Amino acid sequence: MRRTDRGVVLGLYRHDPDRHLLEHALKLGICGVDTAYNYRGFTSHRMLAQTAGDLLEEFIVSTKVGFFPGRDGHTVHCLEPDRLRAAVEESIQDLGRTPDVVFLHNPERTLADLSTDEGGDRLAEACACLADAVASGLAGAWGISSWDPRPLGSVLAACKPDQLPTILLVRAGLTVPDLVLAAAEAISETFGIAAAERWGMSPFGGSTAETVWRTANLSAFLTSQRPCSTQQAAFRLAYELPSVTRIAAGTSNTEHLTELVDATDVELAADAINQYRGLIRADTRRRPTRPATI
């Protein structure tokens, strides 16, 4: 029997699926696994289905569409409805089941080259496509996954109410700039994305191998003397920066996965988090404005 959902999602961005790790995840109460159409050279869905087998039905499976094979081995981004629909259908075939969530993958990649009006029209068409995919039974729900949501607020306004995402997946944690945090929070508030449907990713900014995750002193954020590593404190903080209820994190190590799940019980000092937000907001205001880097 699956343990209570701990709000941890096993991410497959940098890691191949592993049967032993998936079994361990279920025992820990990890109910989600997150992948994408383009991961592992566009083979992640097939690899996951082959590796997980019967276990796959035990997970909430989320995937993403938006990146496609291009020329000479390059990957291209596209918001064309026909390509998105075909990718969702292919994902079902490769997974051997309907995904619980399909995300529109980093729409800002295409929007960066368009005017606000054109971008709004293009995003509205893509959103309508995924909304229709859900209505057609091709996915349980749909949302937007964004590395940099700053361009999205103004163009999402072009979408009809029934075309708006119900789930938002964004970067979370201490490495996320204030303007990106603020944009994610504003989108959630403006477009009515429920607190339970706000997800985070990349809690360590890409890798736990960075020296900072071994040496930083995060004790000011903690309210108890319970033993807690820097990585555990950082992971727990990611649920508050911005406020999310699920975090997608990638690992191939069962011990590391156990440590992350244990960190979800760490108690934090709200005042320290508010002070941190104030500090990075003030630092942003002192710096020259820079265009979004995607």
Please characterize this protein's 3D structure.
With 294 residues, the chain is of the alpha/beta class. The protein has 12 helices and 10 strands. It has helices at 19-28, 39-42, 44-52, 81-95, 108-111, 116-135, 152-156, 178-190, 212-215, 230-238, 254-263, 270-286; strands at 8-11, 32-34, 60-65, 67-69, 75-77, 101-105, 141-146, 167-171, 198-201, 246-249. The strands form 2 sheets. Strands 1-2-3-6-7-8-9-10 form an 8-stranded parallel β-barrel. The chain has a two-stranded antiparallel sheet with strand order 4-5. Helix 4 (81-95) packs parallel to helix 6. The chain is globular and about 55 Å long. The relative contact order is 0.13.
Number-wise, the strands total 10
Order of helices and strands: EHEHHEEEHEHHEHEHEHHEHH
Class by helix and strand content?
A: alpha/beta
The radius of gyration computed from the alpha-carbon positions, rounded to a whole number of angstroms, is: 19 Å
Shape: globular
Q: How far is the first residue's CA from the last residue's CA?
A: 41 Å
Low-confidence stretches: 289-294
Brief overview:
Helices cover 41% and strands 15% of the residues.
Tags for this model:
alpha/beta; eight-stranded parallel beta barrel; globular; 294 residues; single chain; disordered C terminus; 10 strands; 41% helix
Helix/strand layout:
Elements: E1 8-11, H1 19-28, E2 32-34, H2 39-42, H3 44-52, E3 60-65, E4 67-69, E5 75-77, H4 81-95, E6 101-105, H5 108-111, H6 116-135, E7 141-146, H7 152-156, E8 167-171, H8 178-190, E9 198-201, H9 212-215, H10 230-238, E10 246-249, H11 254-263, H12 270-286
Parallel strand pairs: 1-2, 1-10, 2-3, 3-6, 6-7, 7-8, 8-9, 9-10
Antiparallel strand pairs: 4-5
Helix pairs in contact: 1-11, 4-6, 10-11
